[in-house]
Write a structure and sequence with these properties.
The protein is α+β, with helices and mostly antiparallel strands and 329 residues long. Helices cover 23% and strands 27% of the residues. This is HSPB1-associated protein 1.
């Protein structure tokens, strides 16, 4: 095949994304995307001194996951992050001064591109998910992840959609587990985050005394290289770690019909978590919510949320039934 011919047409790529039940890595699909230039240095110039939030964790591998509630947070520019991650002599001033590079990793994760670059909307077109059969989907519907070596996300599954991840700079190692392994991963809703179910197991260093069933899991380990796109199918668990000094990735979650049912489950979960949390000693509350959840929502708002989720689910059921129009109801 010639250099510029992609292995799949947009139609075929979409068919694979929407139906495949196994993780897959797409190669040679994004060679002409301007987003391949989005290394940390380039983004630092584009952001031009704008600060973003970094999550900091310890490089020591513990027997318990390093949940986001246990991390530290700093606001910093990408320039400051790059100076710190080059192992330049400890910056005596600046946001990273208290965090020795040899002991900590930093992660600007889950950053909505639409929000960071709201004053530069033309940059959204650098990301072309239309090549995967999603016309009109660009950087506006994507998120950005910038990490140092060791940066990681605790093992979790996403309640909604499937996930397409483009690796831009550095490599990341993905440990993926099928939905059938759910019970072996000891799922928990604390810390609570809308649409994320965490595992109690530290996948990189499992405590098999406490979590003996973890032995029964089947990990699919993938090292994602720059220019490759990973498909994470619906409800696949994943633990992700940066294995190079600086990593940059871009992802987009693709909505699925099954999300309607998941939204009902999520609405019920939110209601329960908020109800229990409001009955707790208020000073303990911070350990319940993941930092991405700003605050516990009121019972009234949760009821509205549940109503909307149930209505949308029933509408979707109705639509799929009328499509099948069968004489026997």
């Amino acid at each position: 095949i010639g250099e510029d011919v992609k292995p799949f047409t947009p139609g075929k790529a979409k068919e694979i994304v929407m139906s495949l039940q196994q993780p897959a890595v797409f190669c040679n699909m994004v060679g002409d995307w301007p987003a391949l230039q989005w290394n940390a240095k380039y983004l630092s110039a584009v952001l031009d001194g704008k600060t973003i939030q970094f999550r900091l964790g310890l490089k020591t591998v513990d027997l318990v996951p390093q949940f986001e509630t246990r991390c530290s947070y700093v606001e910093a520019t990408l320039e400051e992050f790059l100076a710190w991650s080059c192992g330049q002599p400890p910056c005596l001033s600046g946001p990273f001064r208290c965090y020795e590079y040899s002991k900590y990793w930093a992660y600007a994760d889950y950053k909505y591109i639409a929000r960071i670059f709201e004053d530069k909307p033309e940059i959204f077109q650098d990301i072309r998910w239309s090549d995967f059969g999603f016309p009109g989907r660009s950087g506006k519907e994507s998120t950005l992840w910038i990490g140092s070596e060791g940066a990681n996300t605790p093992c979790h599954l996403d309640s909604y959609g499937c996930n397409l991840v483009l690796q831009v700079q550095g490599r990341k190692r993905w440990h993926l587990f099928p939905p059938g392994d759910t019970s072996f991963l000891y799922p928990t809703r604390i810390p609570y985050e809308e649409s994320s179910i965490f595992s109690k197991v530290s996948v990189a260093n499992p405590d098999l005394k406490r979590f003996p069933e973890f032995r029964n899991t089947t990990a699919h380990v993938v090292t994602l290289n720059p220019g490759q796109v990973l498909l994470v199918p619906r409800h696949w668990w994943h633990y992700v770690e940066s294995i190079d000094p600086i990593t940059v990735s871009i992802n987009s979650w693709i909505e699925l019909d099954a999300d309607h049912e998941a939204r009902v489950e999520e609405a019920i979960t939110r209601m329960l978590v908020c109800a229990i949390k409001s009955a707790e000693n208020p000073s303990d509350g911070d350990l319940w919510l993941n930092p991405t959840e700003v605050e516990a929502t009121s019972h009234e708002i949760n009821l509205q949320y549940l109503n909307k989720a149930v209505s949308a689910y029933l509408e979707c059921q109705k639509a799929s039934v009328s499509e099948q129009v069968s004489p026997s109801s």
